[in-house]
Amino acid sequence: MGASITSGTCMLSQQEKYRLCINNFGEISVMLNRTSLVARWRTAVQLGQRPVPGNAGNNRPPYTLKLNDDYTITVRNNDGKLMMLIAVPGGPGPVSLQLRDKDGKAVITDANGACLVAWGYGGGVPAGC
Fold first, then answer.
1. CATH architecture assigned to 4-88
2. Which InterPro entries match (predicted)?
3. In whole angstroms, what is the distance from residue 37 CA to residue 66 CA?
4. Within 13 Å and on the Cβ side, how many CA atoms surround 88?
5. Paired residues of 87 in beta bridges
6. Which phi and psi (to 5°) does residue 22 adopt?
7. Poorest-confidence range of 22-26, 88-92, 105-109?
8. What is the predicted pLDDT for the residue at 16?
9. Residue 2 dihedral angles phi and psi, to the nearest 5°
10. 101-127 as b/e: b if 16+ CB within 10 A
11. HEC states along the chain?
């Protein structure tokens, strides 16, 4: 827990078949391999276009995606304002965010590597472990 990626950086799957990135608009996407521009899936929510209450006009990159100790995934703007929050199943012990090689899904796993929740698109089926 506590790992994060910032706009312009990516997280690679173990065998580098996919990469998870957050772009300068705050959109989360999974692309094929290390350099391809082909998207496997994306959130299609450009957070950079959303107004931030009490902070009009100051919603700029970099955006940071982080897996937090309270079992949430957050995306924050350059001022630290919360733009997106995803709650994941909590439980005792650490969890980690991984990008799976077999289908390009972003997966939250427990300390034993068991899938708690996954999102993305793969094998003709929607998100799920």
1. Orthogonal Prism (2.90)
2. Bulb-type_lectin_dom_sf (IPR036426)
3. 23
4. 28
5. 72
6. -120, 125
7. 88-92
8. 93
9. 90, -5
10. eebbbbbbbeeeeeebbbbbebeeeee
11. CCCEEECCCEEECCCCCEEEEECCCCCEEEEECCCCCCEEEECCCCHHHCCCCCCCCCCCCCCEEEECCCCEEEEECCCCCEEEEEECCCCCCCCEEEECCCCCCEEEECCCCCEEEEECCECCECCCC
Rounded CA separation 31/17 (Å)? 9
Edge-to-edge strands, sheet with 82-87: 4-6, 64-67, 72-76, 82-87
What are the tokens at 106?
Answer: 């972003």
* Cβ atoms of residues 6 and 21 within 8 Å: no
CA 78 – CA 58 distance, rounded (Å): 9
Q: Worst-scoring range by mean pLDDT, 16-20, 66-70, 78-82, 121-125?
A: 121-125
24 contacts 61 by C-beta, under 8 angstroms: yes
